[in-house]
Structure formats: C-alpha cells, structure tokens
Design goal:
Length: 333
C-alpha cells in the first residue's frame, strides 16, 4: 500500500450499473392481447420518490433494502451521504426512481451548503417524498421543516419510521401537517427484516404519475461504477477511523482500469485537509492506510464480483471542501 499523490489517468467506468437482483421482480403479464397491454400501459406508474430526513435517519439503509443490493454507503456516523443517489426500483406495474439525499442539517462552509442544496434539489424534483422519523423521538424540528418545505412546493409526502422490529410501539400521528394520506399516519417498517416495506411501497405508488417506465428494466442507477467505488472506499474510511477525521476526508479515484477480464485495478487518493490528519490516516508504518485498504478491497470485490487490485494514496488538499469546483469534481453536487 503506497502513500503519495499520483497523476490521474482518465479511464472512467461510466456505464450504468445494472441490477444483480432485487426483492421486487417484475411479474410477466397474464394476458397478451393488445387490449390488455393498452390497459397495463394506461395504469403503469413511474415517478421520483424523495427520501428525506435528518442525518442518520436510515435513508440509505432503506434505499439498499428496496433495491435488494448495496448502492448507498451506510455508517453509524451521521452525514455519511454527501450526494443525491438515484436507485431504480422496477416492479410489475410501476417504476419508482428513489432519490437518496444527505441529511438536512445546520452547518457552514461550501460542503455543508452543497449538501443542503442537494436536499432542496430532491424536494424540487420528486413527485412524492418519504420523510423518515426517528422511532423514539418521532417528529423533530428538522423533519417538520422538511414537511413544511414540501407543502410550500406542493409535493405530497408520507411519514415513515424504521426499526419497527426493535421499537414496535405505534407512533402517534403528529398534528398540523398536510400529509398525502388522511388522516395522517406514520408508516412503520424495518430495513433489517423487511417488515412493512411492501406496504410502504404500495402507499408510495399511489402518488407517482401514470407513466411508462423511465429507465430500462435492468438498470439500477444513473451513477457510474467508478463513482460508487469511490463511495465504498469512503465507507471503509468511516469504518476504520475514529474522531472527526472522516468528515474532513474525501476520495478521488485516479484510475479505474477494466482492461483485464480477471481483475479491476483501482488507484485512489484519500484527501485530507491538514498534514496532521495525513499522519493519522497513514498511521505508524503505513498501518492506518493499509487497514483502510483491506476493508475497502473486501467491499469492492463483493460489489464488483471480481478481484480488485487497490492502491490508496493519502494526499493533503486543504481546499477540497471549500472549493465549489473541487466539490463538483468529486461528485458532491
């Protein structure tokens, strides 16, 4: 495992990621005559579903559960998600375009501003939203603010709370909100066991437009594989490092080489803001960056289904989180 900067090679894997299995598979139509096909086309629904909530509300975990495979990285630490992630869930008579979003939060600086602008974009672009509540604290100020913003934008929304397997007690419906379902209710589900997930999806489908599918049936996301791999490396950073250092780091893929059939070669920079952080990430004798690499390689090989040769370099970049241009280059927009 080397330490350094390296020069980027433009070999991006920009092809869309295909699904490798989902919990909801399209069922073949039982009738083949043209009249029945027309009826199906007229009843098919397709639209964008915003997943909204404060940091660490379980949005990315729910997205992965719905898709049946890992697309968004997850961590017990808040503010893990930094970008809008599209997940395509295709069913027999509907296609839901799930928009995972960063947690709405209060903060300063270009990165925090970019995260909140991403949330605003999800609200603007979605046809319906799921606002996720904490199963214990229920509706808090940040969720109420999101609900009011959705109401001002004229967007229908539903309330949902996870972990019904751990906290099965029903959540009292909050007052003063104009949710899509009346009377207002809090839908319960478990991303771990799948309990309540089908019912949640059925509730959401009612509020997306009648439309043919907007994406091919086997397409999982519009994000390139290269970008997803960078996120998986960043997940390994969160899992390997303590303190506040992961929040000051980003991952920049320098090379994504798929020229061989038996392996993928990835070279990436772990960006830190200060030299003192670099020393911590590298660790004594390079053990810190080696530990990150071992975690990241295991996740990447499981995700890609092929051997991964991974090289990580720790690079100081004091302005990556302050520069709008750098944030755009890293995919945080």
């Amino acid at each position: 495992m080397a330490q350094g900067s390296g020069e980027p090679k433009e070999q991006p894997s920009s092809k869309p990621l295909k699904s490798r299995g989902r919990p909801f598979r399209p069922r073949p139509p039982t009738m083949s005559d043209s009249k029945s096909k027309t009826l199906m086309a007229d009843s098919h629904r397709s639209g964008f579903v915003g997943l909204l909530g404060p940091p660490n509300a379980g949005k990315s975990t729910l997205l992965n559960r719905l898709l049946g495979q890992k697309l968004a990285i997850v961590s017990p630490k808040p503010q893990t998600t930094r970008s809008r992630i599209l997940g395509v869930l295709t069913r027999a008579n509907s296609q839901l375009l799930l928009l995972d979003s960063p947690g709405r939060h209060v903060g300063k600086g270009s990165l925090n501003r970019s995260l909140n602008e991403t949330v605003d974009g999800v609200i603007r672009d979605c046809d319906v939203a799921l606002v996720l509540l904490d199963p214990v604290r229920a509706l808090e100020d940040l969720q109420r603010e999101l609900c009011l913003q959705l109401e001002r934008a004229g967007k229908p929304y539903l309330l949902a709370a996870s972990k019904c397997d751990v906290f099965p007690r029903p959540i009292e419906s909050p007052e003063g909100l104009a949710t899509a379902d009346r009377p207002t209710r809090v839908h319960r589900f478990s991303a771990l066991t799948g309990e309540g997930v089908n019912e949640l999806i059925e509730a959401v489908v009612n509020y997306v437009p009648v439309s043919p599918p907007l994406y091919p049936e086997d397409e999982l996301t519009d994000r390139p594989v290269r970008w997803i791999c960078a996120e998986m490396i960043r997940e390994a950073v969160f899992e390997s490092l303590q303190r506040e250092i992961p929040y000051s780091m980003a991952v920049e893929v320098l090379e994504f080489d798929e020229s061989r059939t038996d392996r993928v070669r990835i070279r990436a920079n772990l960006l830190v803001e200060r030299n003192s952080q670099k020393r911590i990430v590298v660790g004594r004798g390079g053990q810190g960056v080696k530990r990150i690499g071992i975690r990241a390689r295991a996740g990447l090989q499981s995700f890609l289904g092929i051997r991964v040769d991974l090289q990580l370099f720790v690079k100081e970049d004091a302005k990556w989180a302050k520069s709008v241009r750098r944030l755009h280059e890293l995919g945080y927009d």
